[in-house]
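Hey, weird one. I pasted the Putative secreted protein sequence into the form twice and got a warning about non-standard characters only the second time. First submission, copied straight from the form history:
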Amino acid sequence: MSPVSPAAAQDAQEAPAPTTSDLLWANPDARSAEPGAGVTAQVTSQSAARAAEDEELEVTVSVTNGSDQTLTGLELRAQHAETVAEPDGVSTSLLANQGEYPWAGPFQTLDATVGPGESLDITVRVPVGQSDDWYQTDADATGATADDVTLPGLGLSGAGVHPLLFNLNGSLGDADISYLAGARTTLTVTEDTDTDNQVDEDSGDSAPGLTVLWPLSSASVAVAGQVGDAPDPSELYLPDETLAGELSEGGRLRGLLDTWRDATDGDTTVKASTCLAIDPDLLETVDRMTDGYRVGATVPSPVQEPTRLRDRWNRHDDDAPSESGTGADAASAWLSDLRDVVKDACVVPLPYANADINAVATGNDPWLAEEMTDRGVSVVEDVLDITPATGIQIPGSGYIEPAARSLISGRDGNSPSTAVIADATLDRGTVESGGDEITRSATGTLPDSPMRTLQFPAALGSALAATGVRPETAAYSDTSSRRDLAADGAASRMAAAVGVLDRELNAARTTTGQVLAVPPAAWSVDPQDATTFLDAVRDHFADGSAEPVSFGDALSAPAAPVTLDDSTESIDPSPVDDGAARNVAQVAGHLRNLTNIMEDVPNIALTRRIFTRPMFDDLLRAVSDTGRRFREDAAAVRNRGSERTGQVTGLAYALRTSVSLLPPGNVFTRTSDSSPLIVVARNGLPLPVSVRVHYAGAPGVTLNTPGVQQIPAQGSVTLQMTSEIPTEAEQSDLTMYLSTPDDVRISDEVTIRLASVPGLNWRLVGIVAACLVLIFVAARTLRKRRRAVDGSPDSRRVKNDGARD
C-alpha cells in the first residue's frame, strides 16, 4: 500500500446546532467530513481483534442504504492510519475522517446493487502484512462478487494498535461515483515470536499486573409495587420474559457465564485474575424465579379493602392480569451453574440494583443507603453460600462525589472501605513502596477519610462501556473523544477495547504497574465479543506482557494520597437529577415511618423490615445506573425511574391509609353525655399497629378517648368514647384521626357531626318539670279543699252506715 494525500472534506449537510446535552454525548467535530448521504457502513464481525503479520483478517462490512435512491457501482478499499501509541489515541483515531487514514489500497469493484432501505453484508478478507503478490490493482483478479471480496494486504508491520477504515464508494441514483461511507475498526498486531514479547529485564520494567471484573447484572427487574412476606417470599412478578431470555441458551447472561466458565476451566491465570461482580438484585430475582413467577404489567394490591357481600358476587380477580412465567427451568440451570463456578472463585457484590451511589448520597436516607451498600453481601451469602469480598463499592457511574464518601465509609463514617472508580476522576499523589517512589498508584487514600480507592484506567473503562449492543458513553470519558457509538458495529467497538487494553498494559510498565478492567454492570456483549476480550487477556498472560493479579491483591497494593475531582458530574451525559434523588429519599422517609408504625410479634414470621424492603428496592431501581448512559434509552430510563418512584409513593399511601377510622356515619346523635360514640379502627397491614385517637373540635367540645389501643394484623377494634359539648351548642363538628403512641400521624381525618336529640333543651326540660310539679301540687291542694267542704271521710262513712240501717 502507498500513502495518499488526505481527501478534501465534503460540506456537511445543514443540521441544527448541537445542544449542551448533545455535546456531552458526542464531539460535534467527530467524522465531520462524512457525506451524510444516508448510506452507512459498519464492521459487524471481525475474525480477530489481535493478529500477527502473517495472518489474514476477515471482517463483515454491513452497508445500509437509508436514502430514497438505488445504490450502484460499489467499490471498496482498505485504509489505515499511523500506529496508536497511547491508550487515549484509540478513541481519538475513531473520530478521524476518511482522509486522515493516509495509507490506502486500490479500490475493488463489487457487482452489487442496494435498493432504498435495503442492506448488504460484504465479507472482506485482507492479509495483515504486505506482499507483492497481494498488491493488485485489477479488481477482477481478487475474485470479487456481490458480497465477497479479497483485498490486497494492509502492509502492517510491527506490534501495535492500527486504526483501519474500509472505504465505500458508489453512486446514488444518477450521481457520479464518490465516497459514501467508511467502516472503521481497530487491529492489534502482535509480535511474531515469543522472545520478542518478553519484557526486557535490563530496562528495569516489569510486566504489569492485570485484573478483570466480570459483571453479571440485568436491566430487567421486578414489577414495582410488591411487598415482602415470610416465611416464604411473596410471589414474584416480572414485566415480561426478557430476563428469562437472558438466562436461556443464547441469552446474554447465559453467554457471559458460559464464556467466563470456559475461559477459566483449566486456565489458572484467567481465573486468578478475574472476579465476578454480581448484582444482588439479579441474584435474588433469579433465585425467586426458580420457584415460579408471574408475568404482568402490575401486581395485585396488598391492601385488602373491605367489600360488601353483594359486591363480592360480581367481583373478578382481574385487577392485575398476569400469566405464569416460563423461565423457571432456565433460571434454575443458570443459578446451579453459577453456584458451581463460584465455589473457589472471587465474587464481589455490586450496589443493589446497580443504584447510583451519588444519587443515594444526595438524598442521604440511612435505610436506603444501607440497602444499597450492605445488603449485597447477605444476598450473596444466602443464595450462593459463599463469602464475597466486603467493604467494596463499585459505582456504575465510575465516579463518586465528595458527599458519597461518608456513605461508602458506613453509617458511622469510620468503616474501612474501597471505591472502585476511574482514574480520571482523581487527582493523584505519589506513594513509596520498598523505599522507591512510584509516580502513580492504582490504589489511593483520601484525606480525612478511612475510604480507599482502587482506580481503573478511564480510557479502558470507556472503551469497554462502548461495547455490546447497548453501548454506553462513560460519564468520566474525555468529552473530546466521544462519538456516536451507534455509527460503529459491536465487533469494531470490541476490537477498539482490545487495542486500549494493549496500550494500557504497555503504559503501566512505567506507571502504576497495575491495570484493572471494569466493564459496565449490565454488559451487553454477546458470547463472541466476550470471548474476544478474554482471549486477549489470556494472550497477554501467555506472551508475558501482563501478569495475573487477583482482585484481593489489587486492593491491598500500596496506596498513594488522592483527592476527588468534583467536576466529573458536569461532563456526565445522563446523571441522576438531584430533584429525582431527593424525591426518592423523601419517599424512603415515608417508608421508614410506615415501617415503624408496625410492630414485630413472635407468632408472626413476617417482620416489618421484610414487608417494606421490596419498596426500598424499587426506590434503588428508580435511580439505577443501568442503561442510563445508553443514549437511545437514556430518556426512557429516567421516565421509568420517575414512574417507579410514583408507584412506590402511591403504594405507601395506600398502606398507610389502610390503618383508618370507620365512624358509624356522618352524624352522631347523642341523648346525653354518657351516650357512647362507637367507631371502628381498622388495620389493613400484616402486622399489629398500636394507635391512639386524636381529635379536634369547637371550643368546649371534649372527646374522652380510650388511650393507646393495639389493632391486630389485618383486623379491627371497636372503640367507645363519650363526648361533651357546650349546652348552648346543639351541633358541633368533630375531626378525628389515628396516630402512633408517640404522636406520628397515621390515618386520614374523618369528620363527624355531633348533635343532641332534635329539639331537646335542658333548660326547657327543667321548666317543664317545674311546671308539672306545680300542677301536681295545685291539683292536690284543690282536692283537699273539696274534702273540707264535704266533711271528713268518717262522718260520710257514719251517714252512709246509718242509711244502711
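That's the output from the first submission. The warning seems to come from a hidden character in my clipboard, not from the data itself. The mean pLDDT is 87.
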